[in-house]
Amino acid sequence: xxxxxxxxxEMAFISAVYKSDPATILRSAIGGSSLSGxxxxxxxxxxxxLFVIDPEKNSxxxxxxxxxxxxxxxxxxxxxxxxxxx
Length: 86
What we know:
The structure is a single chain. Helix content is about 35%, strand content about 15%. The chain is an alpha+beta fold and about 90 residues long. The N and C termini lie far apart (about 30 Å).
């Protein structure tokens, strides 16, 4: 590969090319985690596995539609913390 995989870039590409609903794209990206054998949905009693996004780094705090902004505008540089407690 010449370019490292970037989930946020892939979501923006799908949104632009296929005109899919941003909420559906985000759910698909999260749901794809089950392919690794562990689903990363937040559930009662489950261990936390998540990314913390810093809204200040990409003006996300001014967004009127955070889901669409996450799918179309952010990149991996806005992740301020990764929490994996599998």
